[in-house]
Amino acid sequence: MNFIEKDTQTVALVEDEPSHALLISYNLELRGIKVSLFESGEQFLNSKQDPFDLIITNVNHFDVGGLQLYSEIRNKGIETPILFVTTNPSINNYLCSDKALELLIKPFSIKELVVKVEHLLNKDLKKTESERLFNEQKA
């Protein structure tokens, strides 16, 4: 699968299960995506890194739950697309109004992961491209 070219797309992976983190990181890095791993929601929230193109997070963390993490991200004004990885599809009831959000239900295939990531990264790039064109027209 080909992603729209941009310097290097970056993903923040918030995952406290090492085997899941390895599986996701490996398969995204194979496709040329830079992955920054955060082992907890707290670690992610306290990071001082450049903005990410996508945030992938498990819903159940031992420190900051996925819904709390989501709220804190949005309350900080961060509009980065988010991919929730969960065993609980009913979480969508809480988040259905956010267009920059997708769910990936466990167990999932690598193909499903890549399709969701590609969709969110491309959607974000289209938004960025639209904003750039709009700003050029205003100038």
Number of strands: 5
Instruction: Identify the CATH class.
Output: Alpha Beta
Instruction: Tell me the strand order in the biggest sheet.
Output: 2-1-3-4-5
Question: What is the helix tally?
Answer: 5
Shape: globular
- Judged by helices, strands and strand pairing, the structural class is alpha/beta
Seen as an oligomer or otherwise, the chain set is single chain
Q: Radius of gyration over alpha carbons?
A: 15 Å
The portion of residues forming beta strands comes to 15-25%
What does the model show?
With 139 residues, this protein is an alpha/beta fold. The protein has one domain (10-138): 3-Layer(aba) Sandwich (Rossmann fold). Helices cover 43% and strands 18% of the residues. It is built from five helices and five strands. The protein has helices at 18-29, 41-45, 66-75, 92-95, 110-138; strands at residues 10-14, 34-38, 54-58, 82-86, 101-105. Strands 2-1-3-4-5 form a five-stranded parallel sheet. The chain starts with 9 loop residues before the first strand and ends with a helix.
